[in-house]
């Protein structure tokens, strides 16, 4: 699938159409990606890339199953995104055929998009309940909220519009920190790249953890951040810190978690007194150095719980907790789950040795 040019602008055509639904091989999954003028391109291309890579590996394995991907819109045709690139919607919104997985993209100016696309809101209202999985990506949650299908449910969205979503729809329990949330057949995700996390979760659910891990490796990303994990990892937060000396300490901490780091070590790394370092760190990061260190260790713990079969005692040692019990207590404070329960809930692999 190569970009075409239309009036000097790049256009990417959909590889599927509604007419192909009847000829899909047994066990295949129908996916409808819903776009509209001004949609966020990354939220469309990211999931399509995940599903396309999954199809490639299924074919290499001799597996005839696949994802049948259909790009649809309120009106078929060339749909401009929030960038210079447009996507070609092969069909309008499906009205009669059964829906398996639906992904509704978000928009930068979501309130304007929702007001303009009243037909899409009505379509969500009528068709969401019948789909196996109906997902809103990023600010696409506003379409579902306006349709009334998120009332009484928890929902994720981009952090920048989380407060607005809660104000507009008090009946929706907005989780401003979650990467993605599943409530029944309704799924919502945080901003932009979280759509990739959500789609990897679909691949894992449909074809198992090994395929999802293979796709994640192809895309050079983590398998998936569990839905309840923070939208901002401690490593990402370090990249956003303005003071270079604090940013350097954060990166250094993330690279040395297995060591018995103390506040004095962090201050020495910054070349500052403990008092001045603590003051500046809290001003820049919003939490104390000690709290940051614990959060970083818990974040690394979560990664090892999902991506390895290491025993809990070994994980505790690798992330710098003196004992397994200290790790358990800190982890519960951070994630409201024990490490063992976290692994059981978010890992669908056969790793059971911990």
TrEMBL record:
InterPro entries to which the protein is assigned, alphabetical: Class_I_gatase-like, DJ-1/PfpI, Homeodomain-like_sf, HTH_AraC, INH-QAR
Sequence ranges assigned to domain HTH araC/xylS-type in this UniProt record: 247-345
One Pfam family in the UniProt entry: HTH_18
Residue ranges crossing the lipid bilayer per the database entry: none
Record's keyword annotation contains Cytoplasm: no
SMART domains: HTH_ARAC
UniProt keywords, alphabetically: Transcription, Transcription regulation
SUPFAM superfamilies: Class I glutamine amidotransferase-like, Homeodomain-like
PANTHER family cross-referenced by the UniProt entry: ARAC-FAMILY TRANSCRIPTIONAL REGULATOR, HTH-TYPE TRANSCRIPTIONAL REGULATOR RV1931C
Record protein name field: HTH-type transcriptional regulator CdhR
Native source organism of the sequence: Burkholderia pseudomultivorans
